[in-house]
Specification:
It is a single chain. About 75% of the residues lie in helices and about 0% in strands. It has 2 helices and no strands. The longest helix has about 70 residues. The N and C termini lie far apart (about 115 Å).
Length: about 120
Amino acid sequence: MTLPRAAPDQVHVHRIELGTWERTHLEEMQRTDDTEDAIRLGLEAAQALALPVALAGTGYLAYLGLVEFQTGRDRLSEWWKANVTEKGPGDDNSGIFRGALRDLAETLNSLLRTGSV
């Protein structure tokens, strides 16, 4: 293959004429391309927003979990104080569980003293 050594001295221009059928189909192809471009842009925008929205949602759920954990811990602490460490109303013993343990210990001691065990 040999390359030309000088610029061409003649330029031929070719023109293609389209009929109605070709123009109609080209318009349909152009509309299809425009629709595909719009869909592609929408998907790219959704992908760009997906990570920040997911991170924000995860952060919010973590915050709610922390708040609920703190609330639950406070409720457990209040219950523990009321039922285990603080004295019940009109009771000289500390809490329900300590009173129950004291009653159990007294029952076992009385059984041991009577020799029923």
